[in-house]
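Researcher: I'd like a candidate sequence for this fold, 270 residues long. If you have to choose between options at a position, lean toward the conservative one.
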């Protein structure tokens, strides 16, 4: 179930979305929360709506609650009702989880349950958002931040993973797994970026090759001298912008040859 955007909302939900936006703008947070919960019940894959819901819930509740009630001060939450339902019917459990988060949007257990449930539904961006909420409210929670970093790695997002690992190290400087994870993820992100750059260069070369082919084709069809001079001027502009582009140099030499400007043709062929 991939996430949807505002434009994908049904005709019946779009008016509710507009009302929710108006409620937020007028600081009518309680009404906005109820509207957004209703929208998400029918469109659980509407990530933008879930993000807005969490934002105004945080405003409404005043932010991070003091940890209490759990072993060693860890937050409790992700109640047995929601957890039990999530195992049986993940999709139907989402509104139940959201009701828990309404009271405590940064709750670690509830957000962790939301993550696991969204994974089952293949709502991968929403799953990441659940743990990103914990990262924002409880950046010291190394266990769940490691879980988030692993999620990003599994989705081939090493840059995001490296940033999460870096946050873990800030709060836990001796966390060797996070230190190694940050280095490995950063290296992988660099390699990924290099690959993207290489692909971009390849597309550029293919474009230049197409321009060269076009020039050769045009010459075979017999352009006039004026047309060749216009083409030369355009290629000169390309050359001035990037004099190291071999495809452009070749184009320029070729058009000089067509113009029988042997001196310049020899210069650029050389």
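Model: Candidate sequence:
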């Amino acid at each position: 179930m991939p996430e949807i955007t505002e434009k994908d909302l049904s005709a019946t939900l779009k008016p509710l979305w507009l009302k929710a936006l108006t409620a937020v703008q007028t600081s009518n947070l309680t009404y906005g929360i109820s509207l957004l919960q209703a929208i998400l019940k029918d469109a659980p894959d509407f990530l933008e709506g879930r993000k807005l819901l969490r934002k105004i819930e945080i405003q409404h509740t005043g932010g991070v609650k003091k940890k209490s009630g759990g072993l060693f001060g860890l937050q409790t939450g992700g109640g047995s009702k929601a957890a039990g339902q999530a195992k049986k019917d993940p999709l139907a459990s989402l509104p139940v989880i959201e009701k828990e988060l309404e009271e405590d949007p940064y709750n670690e257990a509830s957000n962790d349950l939301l993550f696991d449930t969204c994974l089952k539904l293949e709502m991968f961006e929403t799953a990441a958002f659940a743990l990103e909420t914990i990262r924002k409210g409880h950046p010291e929670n190394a266990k769940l931040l490691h879980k988030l970093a692993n999620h990003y790695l599994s989705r081939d997002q090493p840059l995001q993973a490296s940033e999460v690992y870096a946050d873990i190290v800030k709060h836990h400087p001796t966390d060797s797994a996070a230190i190694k994870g940050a280095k490995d993820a950063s290296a992988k992100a660099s390699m990924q970026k290099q690959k993207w750059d290489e692909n971009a260069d390849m597309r550029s070369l293919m474009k230049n090759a197409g321009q060269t082919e076009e020039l050769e084709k045009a010459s075979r069809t017999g352009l006039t001298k004026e047309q060749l001079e216009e083409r030369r001027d355009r290629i000169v502009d390309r050359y001035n912008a990037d004099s190291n582009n071999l495809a452009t140099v070749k184009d320029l030499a070729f058009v000089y040859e067509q113009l029988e400007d042997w001196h310049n043709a020899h210069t650029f062929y050389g």
